[in-house]
Protein backbone atom coordinates (compact mmCIF):
# COMPACT_ATOMS: atom_id res chain seq x y z
CA UNK A 1 0.00 0.00 0.00
CA UNK A 2 1.34 3.40 -0.93
CA UNK A 3 1.78 5.91 1.92
CA UNK A 4 -0.97 8.55 2.08
CA UNK A 5 -0.36 11.78 0.23
CA UNK A 6 0.33 14.74 2.51
CA UNK A 7 -2.57 17.21 2.79
CA UNK A 8 -2.43 20.14 0.40
CA UNK A 9 -1.79 22.54 3.28
CA UNK A 10 1.11 20.59 4.80
CA UNK A 11 4.65 21.99 4.75
CA UNK A 12 6.58 20.23 1.97
CA UNK A 13 9.14 17.64 3.10
CA UNK A 14 11.79 19.06 0.76
CA UNK A 15 12.53 21.96 3.09
CA UNK A 16 14.60 19.71 5.38
CA UNK A 17 14.43 18.88 9.08
CA UNK A 18 16.18 22.02 10.44
CA UNK A 19 13.77 24.33 8.62
CA UNK A 20 10.78 22.23 9.68
CA UNK A 21 11.84 22.47 13.32
CA UNK A 22 12.34 26.24 13.01
CA UNK A 23 8.88 26.70 11.50
CA UNK A 24 7.19 24.56 14.14
CA UNK A 25 8.96 26.53 16.89
CA UNK A 26 7.60 29.74 15.31
CA UNK A 27 4.06 28.30 15.17
CA UNK A 28 4.17 27.70 11.41
CA UNK A 29 2.75 24.23 10.80
CA UNK A 30 0.81 24.67 7.56
CA UNK A 31 1.59 26.09 4.14
CA UNK A 32 -1.12 28.71 4.54
CA UNK A 33 0.59 29.96 7.72
CA UNK A 34 3.39 31.26 5.52
CA UNK A 35 1.11 33.88 3.96
CA UNK A 36 1.33 35.84 7.22
CA UNK A 37 5.14 36.08 7.04
CA UNK A 38 7.57 37.84 4.71
CA UNK A 39 10.41 35.98 3.03
CA UNK A 40 12.98 38.13 4.85
CA UNK A 41 11.41 37.31 8.23
CA UNK A 42 11.46 33.58 7.46
CA UNK A 43 15.10 33.71 6.37
CA UNK A 44 15.92 35.22 9.76
CA UNK A 45 14.75 32.01 11.50
CA UNK A 46 17.64 29.82 12.60
CA UNK A 47 17.75 26.75 10.33
CA UNK A 48 15.92 28.29 7.36
CA UNK A 49 18.06 28.79 4.27
CA UNK A 50 17.62 29.82 0.62
CA UNK A 51 16.93 26.23 -0.54
CA UNK A 52 14.04 25.81 1.90
CA UNK A 53 12.65 29.18 0.84
CA UNK A 54 12.72 28.20 -2.84
CA UNK A 55 10.84 24.96 -2.10
CA UNK A 56 8.22 26.88 -0.15
CA UNK A 57 7.90 29.52 -2.85
CA UNK A 58 7.17 26.81 -5.44
CA UNK A 59 4.65 25.12 -3.13
CA UNK A 60 2.85 28.40 -2.52
CA UNK A 61 2.83 29.22 -6.24
CA UNK A 62 1.20 25.84 -6.96
CA UNK A 63 -1.68 26.79 -4.65
CA UNK A 64 -1.97 30.36 -5.86
CA UNK A 65 -0.59 31.71 -2.56
CA UNK A 66 2.27 34.08 -1.76
CA UNK A 67 4.34 35.16 1.20
CA UNK A 68 3.34 38.35 3.00
CA UNK A 69 5.00 41.53 1.80
CA UNK A 70 2.55 43.52 -0.27
CA UNK A 71 2.36 47.25 0.15
CA UNK A 72 -1.00 46.99 1.95
CA UNK A 73 0.60 47.20 5.41
CA UNK A 74 2.32 50.52 4.80
CA UNK A 75 1.89 53.88 3.13
CA UNK A 76 3.63 55.89 0.44
CA UNK A 77 4.60 59.56 0.67
CA UNK A 78 5.70 61.63 -2.33
CA UNK A 79 9.09 63.29 -1.72
CA UNK A 80 10.00 65.51 -4.68
CA UNK A 81 10.06 63.08 -7.63
CA UNK A 82 10.15 59.79 -5.70
CA UNK A 83 7.73 57.76 -3.60
CA UNK A 84 8.94 56.59 -0.18
CA UNK A 85 7.22 53.58 1.35
CA UNK A 86 7.06 53.20 5.12
CA UNK A 87 5.35 51.09 7.77
CA UNK A 88 4.35 52.04 11.31
CA UNK A 89 3.88 49.90 14.39
CA UNK A 90 3.32 50.64 18.08
CA UNK A 91 3.12 54.02 19.80
CA UNK A 92 5.27 56.34 21.86
CA UNK A 93 8.62 57.93 21.06
CA UNK A 94 9.53 57.54 17.35
CA UNK A 95 12.13 54.88 16.51
CA UNK A 96 13.21 54.94 12.84
CA UNK A 97 14.52 51.64 11.41
CA UNK A 98 16.60 51.63 8.21
CA UNK A 99 17.58 48.47 6.30
CA UNK A 100 20.73 47.52 4.40
CA UNK A 101 21.53 47.75 0.69
CA UNK A 102 19.31 45.49 -1.45
CA UNK A 103 16.99 44.98 1.51
CA UNK A 104 13.73 46.53 2.62
CA UNK A 105 11.52 47.05 5.66
CA UNK A 106 11.08 43.26 5.89
CA UNK A 107 14.62 42.97 7.27
CA UNK A 108 13.38 44.62 10.47
CA UNK A 109 10.18 42.56 10.82
CA UNK A 110 11.74 39.99 13.19
CA UNK A 111 12.28 42.83 15.70
CA UNK A 112 8.94 44.61 15.36
CA UNK A 113 7.25 42.79 18.23
CA UNK A 114 10.03 43.55 20.70
CA UNK A 115 10.55 47.20 19.72
CA UNK A 116 6.90 48.20 19.13
CA UNK A 117 6.06 47.43 22.77
CA UNK A 118 7.99 50.56 23.74
CA UNK A 119 8.21 52.76 20.63
CA UNK A 120 6.38 54.10 17.61
CA UNK A 121 8.29 52.27 14.90
CA UNK A 122 8.79 53.86 11.48
CA UNK A 123 10.30 51.38 9.00
CA UNK A 124 11.38 52.95 5.71
CA UNK A 125 12.18 51.46 2.30
CA UNK A 126 15.18 53.51 1.15
CA UNK A 127 15.04 55.08 -2.35
CA UNK A 128 14.86 52.40 -5.07
CA UNK A 129 14.46 49.62 -2.51
CA UNK A 130 11.34 47.61 -1.77
CA UNK A 131 8.24 49.62 -2.67
CA UNK A 132 10.07 52.97 -2.81
CA UNK A 133 10.90 54.41 -6.22
CA UNK A 134 14.00 56.24 -7.45
CA UNK A 135 13.49 57.89 -10.87
CA UNK A 136 16.98 59.41 -10.74
CA UNK A 137 18.41 55.86 -10.81
CA UNK A 138 21.34 56.87 -8.61
CA UNK A 139 21.92 56.13 -4.94
CA UNK A 140 24.01 57.86 -2.33
CA UNK A 141 23.70 57.60 1.43
CA UNK A 142 23.75 61.38 1.71
CA UNK A 143 20.73 61.80 -0.59
CA UNK A 144 18.91 58.91 1.09
CA UNK A 145 19.43 60.71 4.42
CA UNK A 146 17.89 63.90 3.03
CA UNK A 147 14.92 61.95 1.67
CA UNK A 148 14.27 60.17 4.98
CA UNK A 149 14.50 63.47 6.88
CA UNK A 150 11.91 64.97 4.51
CA UNK A 151 9.68 61.93 5.08
CA UNK A 152 9.91 62.48 8.83
CA UNK A 153 9.00 66.14 8.28
CA UNK A 154 5.83 64.99 6.51
CA UNK A 155 5.05 62.70 9.45
CA UNK A 156 5.55 65.60 11.88
CA UNK A 157 8.44 63.80 13.55
CA UNK A 158 10.85 66.41 14.90
CA UNK A 159 13.11 64.34 17.17
CA UNK A 160 13.62 60.61 17.08
CA UNK A 161 15.73 57.59 17.93
CA UNK A 162 16.98 55.40 15.09
CA UNK A 163 18.73 52.19 14.12
CA UNK A 164 20.33 51.35 10.80
CA UNK A 165 21.96 48.22 9.46
CA UNK A 166 24.85 48.61 6.98
CA UNK A 167 23.60 51.08 4.32
CA UNK A 168 20.84 52.05 6.76
CA UNK A 169 23.47 52.82 9.37
CA UNK A 170 25.48 54.89 6.92
CA UNK A 171 22.33 56.79 5.89
CA UNK A 172 21.67 57.39 9.58
CA UNK A 173 25.22 58.69 10.03
CA UNK A 174 24.51 61.32 7.38
CA UNK A 175 21.20 62.19 9.07
CA UNK A 176 22.97 62.65 12.41
CA UNK A 177 25.53 65.04 10.89
CA UNK A 178 23.14 66.92 8.57
CA UNK A 179 20.63 67.63 11.35
CA UNK A 180 22.26 66.51 14.60
CA UNK A 181 19.67 68.23 16.81
CA UNK A 182 16.96 65.81 15.63
CA UNK A 183 18.59 62.47 16.52
CA UNK A 184 18.43 61.64 20.23
CA UNK A 185 19.82 58.08 20.26
CA UNK A 186 21.09 55.90 17.43
CA UNK A 187 22.39 52.39 16.88
CA UNK A 188 24.79 51.91 13.95
CA UNK A 189 25.02 48.26 12.86
CA UNK A 190 27.86 47.22 10.52
CA UNK A 191 28.39 50.79 9.35
CA UNK A 192 31.61 52.55 8.37
CA UNK A 193 32.89 56.15 8.10
CA UNK A 194 34.54 55.36 4.75
CA UNK A 195 34.78 52.44 2.34
CA UNK A 196 37.99 50.41 2.76
CA UNK A 197 39.57 48.82 -0.29
CA UNK A 198 38.17 45.35 0.46
CA UNK A 199 34.62 46.72 0.47
CA UNK A 200 35.19 48.63 -2.77
CA UNK A 201 36.41 45.44 -4.46
CA UNK A 202 33.29 43.55 -3.37
CA UNK A 203 30.98 46.36 -4.52
CA UNK A 204 32.63 46.74 -7.93
CA UNK A 205 32.50 42.98 -8.62
CA UNK A 206 28.97 42.32 -7.33
CA UNK A 207 26.64 40.56 -9.80
CA UNK A 208 23.97 37.88 -9.87
CA UNK A 209 26.77 35.40 -10.56
CA UNK A 210 29.04 36.41 -7.67
CA UNK A 211 26.46 37.08 -4.94
CA UNK A 212 25.80 34.25 -2.45
CA UNK A 213 22.44 32.47 -2.84
CA UNK A 214 21.09 33.86 0.44
CA UNK A 215 21.88 37.42 -0.68
CA UNK A 216 20.17 36.86 -4.05
CA UNK A 217 17.11 35.52 -2.22
CA UNK A 218 17.07 38.58 0.03
CA UNK A 219 17.19 40.86 -3.03
CA UNK A 220 14.32 38.93 -4.63
CA UNK A 221 12.24 39.03 -1.44
CA UNK A 222 12.64 42.81 -1.35
CA UNK A 223 12.16 43.63 -5.05
CA UNK A 224 8.44 43.77 -5.91
CA UNK A 225 9.34 45.16 -9.35
CA UNK A 226 11.27 42.00 -10.17
CA UNK A 227 14.64 41.45 -11.84
CA UNK A 228 14.72 44.90 -13.44
CA UNK A 229 14.75 46.43 -9.96
CA UNK A 230 17.45 44.01 -8.82
CA UNK A 231 19.63 44.80 -11.84
CA UNK A 232 19.41 48.52 -11.04
CA UNK A 233 20.27 47.89 -7.38
CA UNK A 234 23.35 45.90 -8.37
CA UNK A 235 24.42 48.66 -10.77
CA UNK A 236 24.01 51.23 -7.98
CA UNK A 237 26.00 48.98 -5.64
CA UNK A 238 28.76 48.72 -8.26
CA UNK A 239 28.85 52.52 -8.58
CA UNK A 240 29.34 52.98 -4.84
CA UNK A 241 32.61 51.10 -5.20
CA UNK A 242 34.06 54.07 -7.07
CA UNK A 243 32.37 56.86 -5.09
CA UNK A 244 34.97 58.68 -2.99
CA UNK A 245 32.70 61.45 -1.68
CA UNK A 246 29.55 59.85 -0.26
CA UNK A 247 31.13 57.94 2.62
CA UNK A 248 34.15 60.00 3.61
CA UNK A 249 33.64 61.10 7.22
CA UNK A 250 36.55 62.79 8.93
CA UNK A 251 36.99 62.88 12.68
CA UNK A 252 35.85 66.50 12.66
CA UNK A 253 32.61 65.57 10.88
CA UNK A 254 31.94 62.68 13.24
CA UNK A 255 32.40 65.03 16.20
CA UNK A 256 29.25 66.88 15.07
CA UNK A 257 27.09 63.94 16.15
CA UNK A 258 25.22 64.76 19.34
CA UNK A 259 23.14 61.56 19.53
CA UNK A 260 23.96 59.00 22.18
CA UNK A 261 25.39 56.29 19.90
CA UNK A 262 25.92 52.53 20.03
CA UNK A 263 28.21 51.08 17.37
CA UNK A 264 27.51 47.36 16.72
CA UNK A 265 29.88 45.30 14.58
CA UNK A 266 30.93 41.71 13.94
CA UNK A 267 34.61 40.91 14.28
CA UNK A 268 34.40 38.75 11.13
CA UNK A 269 32.77 41.38 8.91
CA UNK A 270 34.08 40.78 5.37
CA UNK A 271 33.05 44.27 4.19
CA UNK A 272 34.34 46.50 6.96
CA UNK A 273 37.18 45.35 9.25
CA UNK A 274 37.05 46.13 12.95
CA UNK A 275 39.18 49.26 12.43
CA UNK A 276 36.12 50.92 10.84
CA UNK A 277 33.72 50.70 13.81
CA UNK A 278 36.60 51.66 16.10
CA UNK A 279 36.99 54.87 14.07
CA UNK A 280 33.29 55.58 14.57
CA UNK A 281 33.60 54.85 18.28
CA UNK A 282 36.60 57.16 18.63
CA UNK A 283 35.15 59.95 16.46
CA UNK A 284 31.59 60.17 17.80
CA UNK A 285 31.53 61.87 21.21
CA UNK A 286 30.88 59.44 24.07
CA UNK A 287 29.87 56.58 21.75
CA UNK A 288 29.63 52.99 23.00
CA UNK A 289 31.08 50.04 21.10
CA UNK A 290 29.75 46.46 20.93
CA UNK A 291 31.93 44.02 18.99
CA UNK A 292 30.08 40.74 18.40
CA UNK A 293 32.48 37.75 18.64
CA UNK A 294 32.51 35.62 15.48
CA UNK A 295 29.93 37.98 13.99
CA UNK A 296 29.78 38.65 10.27
CA UNK A 297 28.18 41.55 8.44
CA UNK A 298 24.99 42.66 10.27
CA UNK A 299 25.33 40.04 13.05
CA UNK A 300 22.02 40.78 14.76
CA UNK A 301 19.68 38.01 13.55
CA UNK A 302 21.30 35.16 15.47
CA UNK A 303 19.13 34.69 18.61
CA UNK A 304 22.29 33.93 20.60
CA UNK A 305 23.48 37.52 20.08
CA UNK A 306 20.50 38.95 21.96
CA UNK A 307 20.39 42.11 19.88
CA UNK A 308 16.85 43.25 20.74
CA UNK A 309 17.42 43.06 24.49
CA UNK A 310 20.76 44.88 24.37
CA UNK A 311 19.57 47.53 21.92
CA UNK A 312 16.47 48.30 23.99
CA UNK A 313 18.59 48.61 27.11
CA UNK A 314 20.83 51.12 25.34
CA UNK A 315 17.91 53.10 23.88
CA UNK A 316 16.20 53.47 27.22
CA UNK A 317 19.14 54.42 29.46
CA UNK A 318 22.78 55.53 29.14
CA UNK A 319 25.35 52.84 29.75
CA UNK A 320 27.77 53.34 32.62
CA UNK A 321 31.43 52.46 32.34
CA UNK A 322 30.79 49.08 33.93
CA UNK A 323 27.67 48.10 31.95
CA UNK A 324 28.48 49.06 28.39
CA UNK A 325 29.45 46.39 25.87
CA UNK A 326 32.87 46.71 24.26
Name the features.
326 residues; alpha/beta; Rossmann fold; 12 helices; 15% strand; globular; disordered N terminus; disordered C terminus
Layout of helices and strands, plus pairs?
Elements: H1 17-25, H2 39-43, H3 50-62, E1 75-79, E2 82-89, E3 94-98, H4 109-116, E4 120-124, H5 141-154, E5 160-165, H6 167-178, E6 183-189, H7 197-205, H8 213-221, H9 227-240, H10 251-254, E7 260-266, H11 275-283, E8 288-292, H12 307-316
Parallel strand pairs: 3-4, 3-5, 5-6, 6-7, 7-8
Antiparallel strand pairs: 1-2, 2-4
Helix pairs in contact: 5-6, 7-9
How many domains? The number is: 2
Number of strands: 8
Give the overall silhouette: globular
**Mean pLDDT value:** 89
Q: Quick one: biggest sheet?
A: 8 strands, mixed
- Strand order, main sheet: write it out: 1-2-4-3-5-6-7-8
Please name the CATH architecture of the largest domain: 3-Layer(aba) Sandwich
H/I helix tally: 12
CATH class of the largest domain: Alpha Beta
Question: Uncertain regions: pLDDT < 50 for 5+ in a row?
Answer: 1-6, 321-326
The CATH homologous superfamily of the largest domain is called Alpha/Beta hydrolase fold, catalytic domain
Q: Any overview of this molecule?
A:
With 326 residues, the protein is of the alpha/beta class. The protein folds into 2 domains: 13-62, no CATH class; 73-316, Rossmann fold, CATH 3.40.50. It is 36% helix and 15% strand. The protein has helices at 17-25, 39-43, 50-62, 109-116, 141-154, 167-178, 197-205, 213-221, 227-240, 251-254, 275-283, 307-316; strands at 75-79, 82-89, 94-98, 120-124, 160-165, 183-189, 260-266, 288-292. The protein has an 8-stranded mixed β-sheet with strand order 1-2-4-3-5-6-7-8, sandwiched between helices. Helix 5 (141-154) packs across helix 6 (167-178) and helix 7 runs antiparallel to helix 9 (227-240). It is globular and about 60 Å long. The N and C termini lie far apart (62 Å). Mean pLDDT is 89; it is low at 1-6 and 321-326.
